[in-house]
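Posting for a labmate who doesn't have an account.
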Amino acid sequence: MAFRFRPVDASFFDLFAEAAKHLVVGAGLLAEMLAEGADHADVARRMRDAEHAADETTHGIIRAVNSTFVTPFDREDIYRLASGLDDVMDLMDEAVDFILLYEVKQLPAELSEQVEVLQQCAEITAAAMPRLRSMKDDELSEYWIEINRLENAGDKQHRRIL
């Protein structure tokens, strides 16, 4: 039987998994916003709701860090990861909001490909978050490699769009 010398609050891992699931929802809504005939006002409303839900999860992570004596990994890394996940959701919300605000009717077709890359990143991140619990590199290395590949594909697509 293995003993732990320090208790670790596992709720962080659940909150990170929840935050990543919000990204999947946000990326789906962004893709929906780009679809022909989309009700932009409705999609923007649902994105705002999704972004607020993501904010609540981020606040939950921050509250947990501030009230936990022993965290599962470095506090600064927890803040950074929570902030990064929140920033991605904020930027997707911003993109949807701009499409609504500027009443964009036609977008470059390549933009849909970019959003597909974003959706893949969100799904892979959601699948990887529960693996943080083990903190084993062999369980996470496939994630890092695939995210890096998708980032390169997204960067290339971004340059093409510009």
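Reply:
Got it, the structure tokens are right above this. The helical segments are 11-34, 40-67, 75-101, 110-128, 137-161.
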